[in-house]
Amino acid sequence: MGLLAAVVTVTIWTGFIVIARASAQRTLTPFDIALLRITGASLVLLPWGWWMVRRRTAAPGSAALPSSLAGISPLPLRTTALLGTFGGLLYAMLAYAGFFHAPATHAAVLMPGSLPLWTALLAARLLRDHLTPLRAAGLALIVAGDLLVGGSSLLAAFAGGDVWKGDLLFMLAAACWATYSVLARRHAVDAVQATIAITAFACMVYVPAYALLVALGAVTSHLAVAPWSEIAFQMVFQGGGSVVVSGIAFTRMIQHFGPVRSTMITALVPGLSAMGAVLFLGEPMHWNLVAGLLLVTTGILVGVLRKSPAPAASAPAAPHRAAP
Q1: Is this structure's pTM higher than 0.70?
Q2: What is the residue extent of each domain of the chain?
């Protein structure tokens, strides 16, 4: 089961990057895809959250346990809103928007690659985590790899290119997910409860806001002209796969392999995503992308190497990186 969970996690994380870029070249807008991700996940997680809150309330001595959003979120409102803003709303909108400007090979390096960088910096600031020399060396390699990939896009901006916009959005999306992960660890929330809470918050906030902005003409929607097959696929993969299945699989992988070995397994994602973009999307693999990919992957591996097992307190934080 642990091996199966690892295969499922790496496959979905890799597929998310390749499929999101392919989706950007079809009918739907990034706002449409974000809506389908949220609604697809909500169909599974909101009934689950309602059932979880009701079962918990019915248990003896647990009537005072907090919940919010009309009993759908199993977390207090402040925690739900805080985690939902970064992990449910901003991450999805920034990531999907990035694929409309930059290729998947850039996303393969900049999103999963910069995630450990942002997480380590935020954890050092908010959780007072100690930054060891070995981890600092790994982060330096990640920064060097990101600069190799994104630096050329910034230089191309002077010639009118807009790939740098996508690169920036990928980095911001990773920063939002890192913020969510660190805050979830700081508040010591359960991975399943956090996933339900951010989905409930995103559904309550994004869906009515999206409908209002589309009605006012401030946001363009292509849902009316998109094929039903495309809409159904996005709901199933982005919502059911990327949020629900990936979250459960990553949690199971953490339980079997531990947080350190699991992080080393997910270091496969940048390389596999880049190869998938070349094979399935026909994207070119320039020398700076290859060099950046090698540096980022090496940095991730170096950053998780320790002489002793990871402390038990870090285990709950890892599942909050599950939804790509």
Answers
A1: yes
A2: 2-321
